[in-house]
Design goal:
By secondary structure, the chain is an alpha/beta fold. The chain has four domains: 163 residues, MoaB/Mog-like domain (Molybdenum Cofactor Biosythetic Enzyme, Chain A); 56 residues, Molybdopterin biosynthesis moea protein, domain 2, CATH 3.90.105.10; 92 residues, Molybdopterin biosynthesis moea protein, domain 3 (Molybdopterin biosynthesis moeA protein, domain 3, Beta Complex); 77 residues, Beta-clip (Beta Barrel), CATH 2.40.340. It contains seven helices and 28 strands. It has a six-stranded mixed sheet with strand order 16-13-17-21-20-18, sandwiched between helices. A five-stranded mixed β-barrel has the order 22-25-24-26-28. Strands 5-6-4-7 form a four-stranded mixed sheet. Helix 1 packs parallel to helix 7 and helix 5 crosses helix 6. The longest helix is centred in the C-terminal third of the chain and has 20 residues. The radius of gyration is 31 Å and the shape is elongated. The two termini are 31 Å apart.
């Protein structure tokens, strides 16, 4: 039986990058950039005034700091630069270009005048003035031609703003794979149905669909009964039109767990079945035939927590690799209380993390009713990954130990 790390390595080996497409800026948030974005001019493109006030020559002012400076001219944002006459100042507004011949700005609050905006003005006694103050120099943020955004970046609001300011109306991003999410099981009924006492509403499909929506990946929800012919027919149709399949249920060893057999009948090559972990041990993964190449098939256990763990530990890393998104930095947390776990399995412990004043994350285990307890996921925000082979007589994971963390809120 594979370890979770071995299983993930096999999955990532099958993660073939998708192509690219150009999308408008308004549709690019959350997508993975696949082009280099460079500055088309200096950032800022001109010496920019950062405070409302007056602009003058520092050298001329420093020769006589108590002098009154005529300041009748006004430089507004969006206007071409005025030229400073010797011995004068120009009133300037935030965002305006610095007038020619000026190199320093003093804000209105530090000036004396008969009334705000009147002329002449002078700097109040005792106010410190330094050469170049309140001036955002041209090119001081980024020079023209500098790389601003690199391929692989998951685009957020500041990235969209930068792309807009360099004049890009569209961006080249990773195409989105077409996925199908399939739940199986005769006990499952539609979410709008009134279930009988022996039935439950379908939720795992919505769980996976919602998780994929964070990456804007489109997927259709399907349900197939525990019947071999129906499974073969439905899965064959989906293999023919999708880039990957995500199944939930029917992969264990019960009489109605027919998914592995149906996949084998369709020529889906099994890479592994079962991983040494809890929850989610019966996980099945393989490659099926498709018109555009091999189709990865993730067959996750049907218990909701198992499906949840399978998505975050296996499907999401595969999706990142396919989209050519960067690997997130590893996260760690401190176990908040002693935990005993005897099986020789990797344990994905449900926890709620809280930031401590020293900057560490403290992970508090949240006990639930096992892998079928969907409601317990409401009270947690991460999974602490406890390794197998705890080498002590009590099978103890002690409070204060540090372990990897899978964070999802």
């Amino acid at each position: 039986m594979l370890t979770p790390d071995q299983a993930l390595a096999q999955i990532l080996a099958q993660a073939l990058p998708v192509g690219t497409e150009r999308v408008p800026l308004a549709q690019a948030t959350g997508r993975v950039l696949r082009q280099t974005v460079r500055a088309d001019r200096d950032f800022p493109p001109y010496p920019r005034v950062t405070m409302d006030g007056i602009a003058f020559s520092y050298a001329q002012w420093a020769a006589q700091p108590e002098q009154w400076l005529p300041a009748s001219a006004v430089q507004l944002a969006g206007q071409p630069p005025l030229t400073l006459a010797p011995g004068t100042a120009i009133q300037v507004m935030t965002g305006a270009v610095l007038p020619h011949g000026a190199d320093t700005v003093v804000r209105y609050e530090d000036l004396e005048a008969e009334q705000k905006g009147s002329s002449p003005v002078r700097v109040r006694a005792g106010v410190p003035v330094t050469l170049g103050q309140c001036v955002h120099l041209q090119g001081s943020d980024r020079p023209r031609g500098a790389e601003l955004l690199a391929p692989g970046r998951v685009l957020a609001a500041p990235d969209i703003a930068v792309a807009a300011t360099v004049g890009l109306t569209h961006l080249e991003v990773s195409q989105l794979p077409q996925l199908a999410v399939i739940s199986t099981g005769d006990e499952l009924v539609d979410v709008a149905a009134n279930p009988l006492p022996h039935q439950i509403r379908r939720s795992n499909g919505y769980l996976l669909q919602a998780a994929l929506q964070a990456w804007h990946v489109p997927c259709q929800l399907h349900h197939l009964p525990d019947q071999l012919d129906a499974l073969r027919t439905g899965l064959a149709q989906l293999l023919d039109r999708c880039d990957a399949l995500l199944l939930s249920g029917g992969v264990s060893e019960g009489l109605a767990d027919l998914v592995p057999r149906a996949l084998a009948d369709l020529g889906v090559a099994k890479l592994f079945h079962k991983v040494a972990q809890r929850p989610g041990k019966p996980f099945w993964f393989g490659l099926g035939p498709g018109p555009r190449g091999p189709v990865p098939v993730f067959a996750l256990p049907g218990n909701p927590v198992s499906t949840f763990v399978g998505y975050y530990h296996y499907v999401l890393p595969w999706l990142r690799r396919v989209l050519q998104a960067p690997e997130p930095p590893p996260q760690f947390a401190v176990l908040g209380q002693d935990i005993k776990f005897a099986p020789d399995l990797t344990y994905f412990l449900q926890v709620r993390t809280l930031a401590q004043q020293n900057g560490t994350l403290l992970a508090h285990p949240v006990a639930g009713g096992g892998s079928g307890d969907l409601a317990n996921l409401l009270d947690v925000n991460g999974l602490l990954v406890l390794p197998p082979n705890r080498k002590n007589s009590e099978n103890l994971f002690a409070a204060g130990e540090v372990f990897p963390l899978v964070s999802f809120r």
